[in-house]
Prior knowledge:
alpha+beta; seven-stranded mixed sheet; 15 strands; 23% strand
Amino acid sequence: xxxxxxxxxxxxxxxxxxxxxxxxxxxxxxxxxxxxxxxxxxxxxxxxxxxxxxxxxxxxxxxxxxxxxxxxxxxxxxxxxxxxxxxxxxxxxxxxxxxxxxxxxxxxxxxxxxxxxxxxxxxxxxxxxxxxxxxxxxxxxxxxxxxxxxxxxxxxxxxxxxxxxxxxxxxxxxxxxxxxxxxxxxxxxxxxxxxxxxxxxxxxxxxxxxxxxxxxxxxxxxxxxxxxxxxxxxxxxxxxxxxxxxxxxxxxxxxxxxxxxxxxxxxxxxxxxxxxxxxxxxxxxxxxxxxxxxx
Length: 295
């Protein structure tokens, strides 16, 4: 059966037709999902029931190597026993809601900033896959910004001026902007990584801005000028017409391309309403077998 997709936004984002991702194993079934990611950058799958192990297995089948050097791992051990499975929840190991001053909660508040998963690592993150297990009755949405259209709508002169610029990304930087404090040992494990300001998808050649709240500075510009440029580009990329807002349902499984999007969590009363989600992120490590020539 051919998998069909319904657009969710004029320029990006789509909802997939009925499919059980636990049953998707062979390349004939996986490749249409990759093609949809190239086209839409964000794809929503409804009514999924993947276990933790099944989520990890599907992510590996779809895109290979997994991101395990997460920022939260410097603060505490993973309660699931595998650092590839990021706990995007507001509950502690005891199953109770996190207190307002819990360190993990304060660390996670930075998810409300526009960001790109694993941009602070090399290789950077490629696909993120977030499974919604428990969704509160109040709105607890996630917004996505289309970084391809953001690039496309820049003036030609601005595009030319961005070519070759390199940006340092640090998860410590994004947290520290909100006043979160790391120990000296923790900071030593969060050195960050450097990536181009403009990326191109090797499968189709589509170009995009590569930004995040983790972007601390442009290495090729003086600090004040470079940071102002990053701020201007962030404002440009997050204009309302470039943003898709996803309202979660239990069983949603959303995949997004970190090279082509930014995202942020919207606030809700997280010390009152339970929300449990699990995320797996793959690494942009390259796989020539899957790289197609631009059309």
